[in-house]
Amino acid sequence: MRKTLKKSLALVLSLLMLLSVSPLGLAEGEPEDPPHTHVYTEVSNWLWDDDYSSCAAKVVCSDESCGQMTFLTAEISEDTTAYEAASCINTGKKVVVAEVTLTNGEKASNRKEIVIPALGHDFTAPDLTDAEAVAARVNLAGDGVHNWKCIREGCTAVGIMQLKEGTEDVCVPVTDATVPCTSTGDNVKTCTSKAVCDVCGAQDGDTLPHDLTEVPAVAATCLTDGNIGYWKCNDCGAYFSDAEGNTEIKDKDSVVIAKYSNNGEHKGPEDYAFFSNDGGEYDCTEGGYKVKICAKCGEVLDETHITVDAMDHVEAADWKYVGEDGGQFDCTKGGYRTKVCKNCEKELGTPEVLAGKDHNYIRFPEVPATCTESGLTAYRACSVCKYGEEPSVINPLGHKIDQKVEAVTPDCTHEGNIEYWKCTRDKCGKLFVKSTGETGEETFTSVTEEGVKLAKTAHTFVLDTAGEAATCTDSGKKDVFKCSVCGQLAVAATAEEEGAYSIVVDEETKYYKDIANADEAVIPMLGHQWIKDEENDYVAPTCISKGSCNAFCSKCGTTTVLTLDMIPHESKRLIETVAPTCLRGKYEIHECKNCGQTYEKDLYKENDASTHVDGIEPLAHEYSGFVTTIVEPTCTETGIEGRACLKGCGTYLDGNVLPAKGHSLADVREEPVGHTPGYYGKQCSVCGEFTEKEEISVPAECLDTNGDAKCGVCGKILCDHMCHSENAFMKIVWFVVRLWYQFLGINETCDCGIPHYTKASSIVVPD
Fold this sequence. Notes:
Strand content: 25-35%
Radius of gyration: 52 Å
Helix content: under 10%
Mean pLDDT: 80
Oligomer: single chain
């Protein structure tokens, strides 16, 4: 009877377990509820962008149990029946309409009226013939007085020409102002023409005098042209040789003094010229400045200006020889010699008197002439006083223009050049172009290297790959063009883009930019342009949490929920001011009046020079004078030693790596205890890490030798599966489980390998 009761109880429990995991109340094949279909029948809000070019309608599902919200992108159109054109003085208007189709098929719309500014009067008459221009003027009273009328259709406004000095003619509306046809004041005259009425053609009999400004004479240099002195009229630009304007210089080029022919460069000396600070005679002990002066044109080379501080004199290596009377020294007459400062040429020390003696003749070598510079012949003279032969001047040789360079036609990949000649004299190499005058005489004109170059020709581009527009989420690509001559790839560009160049095609200027491959034609995705809905489901950000709001993209209509950044804390009170350390500048700790939490406010900012003052900026490190260990090395990790900061900030100087110490190994052995295996091997006595470890198995007599998951020696259950549990409740649960295993034909095996049952009679009802 007891066993029967236990079996009944087990069956009841098993049925309850079966019902707990089975679907209840649904007949086999019964369908589930269909998905909910949103119904949008009313617009709750219209969201326009700033220029009314796009709009979205916010709609909410009319099912009260749903409340789903979304945005519908509206179609934009213009109500032409409501259009009112603007006039010269009155504003106009236009009406744009946004329309969406709702779920029930009805259409909802929203209208926006946009003001068109007044046009203003148009008193100009561009591109009119003479007859039309006269017709654009009106006669107010039939008395020869003429004014402009507004040329806009339907406007009768009249304006009077107001002539203002130094400005364009300005026309303003008037009602009764008059300008006599014969009025030709001086303000419409020039120094070269009389005043003329543009209606009747009447002329003033005189012209205005020239307004002359003197242009002072300027000396030519190696780099710049000079000019003679002359006067220039500020109105007509004519040149005159006198201040009264009586003698005009017809050939304006005649005032130019050509720059020195020195290949566009100054001929600077190797040595500096010294001057006092006021430009006078230099003295080393007072200081001043030194500059180089062009030996060709005498211009001071400002870029060589160097300030020279006061210093001691520096004795020159050579003597300075002076005649008895303080003039030119002559060896045969005698005089004296003295050492001088090589910088300021001041005499140093006591002069040495020299008696007359014979000259010391030497031969000075020839100075060769160049194409443009004179030379000197060799001569014999005294090495001291220079008495002797006078050298003869060797005239410039002139250019030897005998190397012709043939013209090269440029293409879209290579520059070309015009036909030109080279001077073949040593160290010259100047370039020239040849021209033939009316008499057939050939002349050569010097040019620069740039002057003979011909630029590359324009590419002949044809469309190679059509582009695709970028979207908010996907990149696009530009049209790729390919030169039909050289194969160069390019994309369309604007004049302002770096690397852009222009090509004229059918009188239209187009701009391109070269690319190496089609990957450079990629257009980055546009990215969404979110319009925020701050009226519904809006969560404002605080100083401790971010906010959120619904938004839609004005470009593609996609909806999203935006995360709004936290707002800054606002101070309620200052809690503490923390002095600067080596690692951080001065900062304050405040209590926020909004959230009540504390926050830090840095008073020192790295990129703000105004905060770099004592008491605010980080302190300077103070490093010890001796080396200490900063990081101790371990058995496997290196350490660091160096000069630590004495302020305790953790930084150091002159860091050296300390090698790892290595393991200190010892043999260890642990015998098995009960059913716990033992081990033996080598273990570090410092860090405890094993380098070698082998397991010592449990003795055989302590293993399960009876096939019931129990130790045959000590009786310990070697498996923790519930089938071995000694707990009364777990025994009943396991009994029910085994019944179901048998009923379902499942022959389970325990984790320890023992079969749970072999036949029905093996299931024993637990006590």
